[in-house]
Specification:
This protein is α+β, with helices and mostly antiparallel strands and 233 residues long. The chain contains four helices and 14 strands. Strands 2, 5, 10, 11 and 12 form a five-stranded mixed beta sheet that branches. Strands 4-14-13-8-9 form a five-stranded mixed beta sheet, with no helix packed on it. It has a two-stranded antiparallel ribbon with strand order 1-3.
């Protein structure tokens, strides 16, 4: 199995040994699938360095998306690839926040040598049509269980497993190879993408809250994200 360097933002090293059977469809509640797609689009859109050189995207909560007037969900910054501890100070007026509990994004490319081999032996290129089966395979194998541990105000947080259908992400030039991939597939600055991993939509009452997510098992080295959140409604 040959993994492209840009395949996995959140689990580049760990997925080298992933083994699973091929799933048949996207997974998880449709609402969470849509939010996961939006949070991944946010991650990719705010990259200002290649994923393996940037710890979180966006780098701060001030850059994160708090504009969802219909669902009232704040998309918290997520791990971009580089291990390391981060503390975020967030002021939100949303009713819930979306927390990433470890996952990967998969993007298309035009390299015939970039392939994913399933446990069943099927070899898939990273074409748009194959992104969902690849992500389904990842969620059925390496991400069959939640890798990150997390708490909300000291209480354990459990998420749901999610793999999404393909969606389009905007890729900045600063994203390095990902932007090169977008040029090579014929639409610079845009890539078909899928997400596979674990998410939690957390309702928060007005006041101060602390969410701590230990992503060390995901990142391959100590990586703890602390979100200090003030909810103002």
């Amino acid at each position: 199995m040959k993994l492209r360097k840009s395949l996995v933002a959140l689990t580049v090293i760990a997925l080298m040994s992933a083994s699973s059977g091929l799933a048949e469809a996207s997974k998880g509640p449709v609402r969470i699938q849509r939010l996961a797609a939006e949070q991944t689009q946010q991650l990719l859109g705010y990259l200002n360095a290649p994923p393996l050189e940037q710890t979180a995207s966006p780098r701060t909560c001030r850059d994160a998306d708090n504009s969802d007037k219909y669902r009232k969900v704040f998309l918290l910054p997520t791990l971009a690839g580089q291990p390391g501890d981060k503390t975020f100070y967030c002021r939100v007026n949303a009713r819930t926040v979306l927390v990433d509990l470890g996952g990967a994004f998969v993007t298309e490319d035009n390299n015939p040598e970039s392939t994913w081999t399933t446990a069943g032996g099927e070899v898939l290129r990273f074409t748009r049509d194959n992104l969902e089966p690849i992500c389904d395979d990842i969620i059925a194998g390496y991400y069959s269980k939640q890798k990150a541990t997390a708490t909300v105000d000291g209480k354990a947080l459990r998420g749901v497993a999610v793999s999404t259908p393909a969606f389009i992400s905007r890729i900045p030039k600063a994203a390095g190879q990902l932007y090169v991939d977008s040029k090579e597939v014929g639409h610079p600055g845009k890539l078909a993408t899928t997400y596979c991993g674990w998410k939690a939509e957390v309702p928060l009452q007005p006041g101060r809250h602390v969410i701590v997510v230990d992503l060390s098992d995901v990142a391959g080295a100590r990586t703890v994200f602390t979100y200090e959140i003030k909810v103002e409604r």
